[in-house]
Specification:
The protein is of the alpha+beta class and about 425 residues long. It contains 12 helices and 22 strands. The protein folds into 2 domains: about 260 residues, FAD/NAD(P)-binding domain (3-Layer(bba) Sandwich), CATH 3.50.50; about 160 residues, no CATH class. Strands 1, 2, 7, 8, 9, 10 and 21 form a 7-stranded mixed β-sheet that branches. A 6-stranded antiparallel β-barrel has the order 12-15-14-13-18-19. Strands 3-6-5 form a 3-stranded antiparallel β-sheet. Helix 1 runs parallel beside helix 5 and helix 9 crosses helix 11. It is elongated and about 85 Å long. The two termini are about 15 Å apart. Bound molecules: flavin-adenine dinucleotide.
């Protein structure tokens, strides 16, 4: 039998931050125990930001969150980007922001973030139990009793569930954290994958697989624009990818899971790519006329080579129904008009999103009505806390999800340790 004042189930982003916050207050060896089912702490954290860990965003605020975002507004106003970066600075981790406000460790290595959290928690007396997931959590008369996969039992006064979500299961230990929450009386809103690629009908994307284009992508629901984002769009074997596409996928994933976007029912989705967002329709049209005038023998397939990737330019010419071998001076005016429209509004029918295997985050989870949004304490069980991706809050791409993991972990770690101090500890 193992005992601790506070047990944190899950040694990922939120769990490790909770451990630092709690151990820093209690400062007693072994008072805080982190149980991680994987053989290593923070496996997903190491994969974030392509190994560089986009750990926050200077614009982090409720409008960048979805699900029960309103319920965590006060949490986010307490744990601003400055507060979170300050907490990392206290651990010795220096950060830097790029021009879009995305924050990374100064070293450019996710491992530096994991090391800072692990060292800081350990220095304040937290201990780690690695490689045996928690399989059950039961409420006792006082505190909780946890069973681990290796047969060990843990007794604790407070329990923080930080098991992460269903996205990218290869980084997790394979035990369903939501089931632990359900067994303690919580409900779980339907889960669906978000921040992922869009699957598109037709062969165009596949033919361009691997090619990138700076574009503005607009998500159209029944032909109406619901969300637009600019950035690099990448064509893949199955559809579209890239940071701005991930932004669209939050709404697309909601549509494919519920048939609705922001509560409104729709029937079909498409993405329109504006491949020349810096030029108006008239400017693109004028450019095409000028090329045809000055270079009458240029082949239609190369008309867009001066402004777009050659393969994308050819695909657009074909999508406009123009023979790529036609000389520029033989292209009808109506065809140039069609080509201009396609450059500005290249439409792809969206048939789905990639699943949890490829997604960065989980939408859905434990609803915030069941949680105190300032301390992350459960309203179903005293001294039970739930943090991070398990909750029905998910953020935009760009550091917002880790920001929420840190904020909720800090709040829960502090609240749990304060409660232990008030009671004089369990052991
Ligand atoms: C490839 C990829 C890249 C990403 N990049 C970014 C990025 O750059 N910026 C950003 O903001 N977000 C990013 N995200 C999202 C971000 O990683 C998550 O939002 C964040 O890790 C959630 O933190 P968490 O602590 O809730 O869950 P996790 O970090 O997933 O940690 C949960 C931990 O709990 C453990 N666990 C689960 N169940 C049990 C159990 N029963 N017993 C013991 N242990 C258990 C798991 O093994 C896991 O280690 C990325 C996600 C992916 C997949």
């Amino acid at each position: 039998m193992v005992q601790a004042d506070i047990v944190i189930v899950g040694g990922g982003a939120a769990g490790l931050m909770a451990a630092c916050a709690a151990a820093r207050i209690l400062r007693k060896p072994g008072a805080v125990l982190v149980v991680e089912g994987n053989q290593k702490l923070g496996r997903k954290l190491l994969a974030t930001g392509n190994g560089r860990c986009n750990l926050s965003n200077l614009a982090a605020a409720p409008e960048h969150y979805h699900g029960d975002a309103a319920a965590v507004a006060s949490l986010l106003s307490s744990y601003t980007p400055e507060a979170i970066l300050g907490a990392f600075r206290d651990m010795g981790l220096v950060t830097r922001a790029d021009e879009q406000g995305r924050v990374y460790p100064r070293s450019g290595q996710a491992a530096a973030v994991l090391d800072a959290l692990r060292s800081c928690a350990a220095e304040y007396g937290a201990v780690f139990r690695i490689g045996a997931p928690v399989t059950a959590v039961r409420r006792e008369k006082v505190g909780f009793r946890l069973d681990c996969a290796d047969g060990e039992t843990i007794e604790t006064g407070a329990c923080i569930l930080a098991c992460g979500g269903a996205a990218s299961p290869k980084h997790s230990c394979g035990v369903d954290g939501y089931a632990l929450a359900k067994a303690l009386g919580h409900t779980v809103m339907p889960l669906y994958p978000a921040l992922t690629q869009l699957v598109c009908a037709g062969k165009t994307a596949k033919a361009l697989s691997g090619v990138r284009c700076a574009a503005c992508a607009t998500l159209l629901a029944d032909g109406k624009a619901v969300y637009a984002e600019s950035g690099d769009v990448q064509f893949t074997d199955t559809g579209l990818s890239g940071i701005c596409i991930f932004g669209l996928s939050i709404y697309a994933a909601e549509f494919f899971a519920t048939g609705r976007i922001d509560g409104k029912a729709y029937r079909a989705l498409a993405v329109a790519l504006d491949c020349m967002p810096e030029w108006s329709f008239a400017q693109v049209r004028e450019y095409l006329s000028e090329i045809c005038r000055r270079h009458p023998q240029r082949l239609a397939g190369e008309l867009l080579a001066g402004i777009l990737n050659l393969r994308i330019g050819r695909a657009l010419v074909q999508a406009a129904g123009i023979d790529p071998a036609l000389a520029a001076n033989r292209i009808p005016v109506a065809a140039l008009q069609r080509l201009t429209r396609i450059v500005k509004e290249w439409s792809f029918t969206v048939t789905g999103t990639k699943g949890f295997l490829d997604a960065q985050i989980t939408a859905g989870g434990v609803p915030l009505v069941e949680i105190d949004g300032r301390t992350m304490e459960s309203r179903k069980a005293k001294q039970l806390y739930i943090v991070g991706e398990m909750l029905n809050v998910h953020g935009d791409c760009g550091g917002y999800n880790l920001h929420f993991a840190w904020a909720s972990g800090l709040a829960a770690g502090k609240a749990a340790a304060d409660a232990v101090q008030r009671k004089g500890g369990r052991r």
